[in-house]
Amino acid sequence: MATDFSDNLKIERRPKLSERVVTALRSQVLSGEFKPGQKLPTESQLTEVFGVSRTVIREAIATLAADGLVESRQGAGVFVCESPVMAFSSISQEIGNKISHALNVIEVRMGLEIESAGLAAVRRNAAQEAAIHEAFFEFDRLLAHGEATGRTDFAFHRAIAAATNNPFYVEVLDALGMRAIPCDITSPWGTDSVLAREYEEGLQQEHLAILKAISAGDPEAARDAMRAHLAASQQRYRERLSDEQAEYRFGRNSKNS
After folding, report:
1. CATH no., domain 87-256
2. Are 178 and 191 in contact (CB under 8 A)?
3. Which of 119, 161, 182, 250 matches a 20 to 30 Å C-alpha distance to 4?
4. 1, burial (CB in 10 Å: exposed 0-12, middle 13-18, buried 19+)
5. CB contact at 8 A, 220 and 116
6. For the residues of the chain, what is the DSSP string, one character each?
7. Triad 164, 170, 175: Cα angle to 5°
8. pLDDT tens for residues 232-253?
């Protein structure tokens, strides 16, 4: 019986103290709270802020330096790199302004966000869950006023990524940036445009299913809801391609008739 119990027992590893410091500082650097060229607080200040030893702070700084986010200057302190660019941050430069590229983005998002939704369902804290709710209801507010919802749509997905408590989910999503958001009728990246209300209401229903699953702490339901949402977005892009093909055939046939 003891063996059976131990086989089923799940033990979640507590993150090292240095990992907690790294996560916090990385977030502050990537969000711009610590700007390029800015000096970080001193080692003594950081030990006080985080309530850890100097050894832990040094380990965290070494990790951030290896990531290319900060650099130590002899006798001067630790500074944010002038171009604190992580490996994924070049992704956005490679994406063009075509529906085919939009489909590629959706494919990447499916590999990323389906699992992030599942992790968010089990790892989120109260503040992170509140952030997901806030983004959801802000989308509702903007929709009711007929305003563009693209940036709030992105905020919803980003809040879910943050709730995984794995900073790399946020980093990849940030690299995709606003290109991750569904397009309107005029532009594949029309995130500042007001989409058709029916279209946006459909998006919000899909968001609601994701939100409910995460709030219920149901990782499989969260994954399924996110998969359904992104698959629907994928289908919407494919339909746009079909529409363009139909318009092309119609236009060509008109000219030849």
Report:
1. 1.20.120.530
2. yes
3. 119
4. exposed
5. no
6. -HHHHHHH---PPPPPHHHHHHHHHHHHHHTTSSPTTPBPPPHHHHHHHHT--HHHHHHHHHHHHHTTSEEEETTTEEEE-SS---GGGGGGGG--SSHHHHHHHHHHHHHHHHHHHHHHHHH--HHHHHHHHHHHHHHHHHHHTT---HHHHHHHHHHHHHTTT-HHHHHHHHHHGGGGSPP-SS-TT-TTSPPPHHHHHHHHHHHHHHHHHHHTT-HHHHHHHHHHHHHHHHHHHHHHHHHHHHHHHHHHHHHH-
7. 160
8. 988 887 877 665 555 555 555 4
Domain ranges, ordered by start, for the chain? 17-80, 87-256
Model pTM above 0.85: no
At 127, list the tokens. 């503040």
Task: Indicate the average pLDDT of the chain.
Answer: 79
Are 161 and 204 a contacting pair, CB within 8 Å?
no
What phi and psi, each to the nearest 5 degrees, are found at residue 70?
-135, 165
CATH of 17-80, one of 1.10.10.10, 3.10.580.10, 3.40.30.10, 3.40.50.2000: 1.10.10.10
Helix axes 126-144, 197-215, angle to 10 degrees: 160
Q: Sorting pLDDT into bands at 50, 70 and 90, what band is 18?
A: confident
The region, left, alpha or beta by phi > 0 then psi within -120 to 50, assigned to residue 25 is alpha
What pLDDT shows up at residue 14? 52
Contact 68, 62 (CB under 8 A): no
Amino acid at 149: T
